[in-house]
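Attaching the record inline, Q. Sequence:
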Amino acid sequence: MQDMGCRMWGTGAAKLGQGECEGLCQALPPPRAAPQPNPPGPLSPSTGGSWCPRCPQSTPGCPGPALTTALGASKLPQQRQSPGRGTPRRCRALSAHGMSESCRASTLGGPPHPSMPCGGPFPQPHPFTMVSPAIALAFLPFLVTLLIRYRHYLVLLYRAVLVGWLRDRLTGVPREQRAFQYLLAHAIPGDPRHILQTFDQWCYCCEHLSSVGPIKGRIVERLLYERAPLRVLELGTYCGYGTVLLAQGLPPGARLYTVELDPRHAAVAEKVIRLAGFDEQTVELIVGPSEEVIPRLREKHGLLKANFVFMDHWKRCYLRDLQLLETHQLLAEGATILADNVLFPGAPHFLQYAKTCGKYRCKVHRASLEYFHAIPDGIAELCYTGNR
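Structure, as predicted:
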């Protein structure tokens, strides 16, 4: 039996001594009926430690070179899952010989154990966790440059979006309603100019409102006085700032039609317009989307031709509404169309159409954004010349 066991191991057993071979054969399990048995490999006794095939130094608990030499790479059991067990055969075979966890993982080619005492493979750090401080500092001047260059836009974002959103949540009152309450407390009723100044004071000191503002407002006033229109159309009433600005410059007998999409904004604008002293015969407020209101202006509201149009609603609607006015023939010959915020946030398609369609003489009055002098903006002035 012992000779048979030694012959089964081939040259690996021939290199062992007589005592080692006897101990090996006693440790062998009984022969199996399978055609290719995979018996556990022999162990070579060692004193004070053994040598690991993957380790350059002696490691206690390692079965030594006899396991690798006697079994060979081809003699080791294959790493496949046995039915009903959670450990592969190869791992169980190595565990049966007393191989340590770190050396077994290294021999099997698995991930190295953190406590491996030898110079085996160590876990590599994730590439994104090893960022050089010098690379991080190299981006610092770039970030500082961006902050300095676009600081005014950051302030606009803070005042126009964050502050308004927080106060809406804390007070439960919309900012437009808060602005009207400020007007009631500080403005003089019946004085349109003082109401506009109070509006400007609120926007400079308290919160930001997207109105035309005092700087671009002077451009609108000058053009309104020069044209002296009798029928004025405003698209985008919002809180009524632009409506009061236009109404105070109307000649006697003129009428202003203003269109607002949001009913909540229209309710505030109605109060502001009446507070300024304008009745329904002078200013008619129409609530609804502009694409639905414009086709009904002639039949329902009696607007035959508009001599002056002021656009201050959604910028993406400028081109669509201008083409609707053309389609329904609501623009008088030589009518003036003013469009606010054509540079910021901008209305590029509207400007391109006005310059290339051949129906308008186009000019852009450059100014600054309302209540932010450092942000450039402008008002587009279009003079309608018809289809000639």
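The beta strands are 50-51, 58-59, 231-235, 255-260, 283-287, 306-311, 331-339, 360-369, 372-384. The first helix runs from residue 2 to 9.

More tomorrow.
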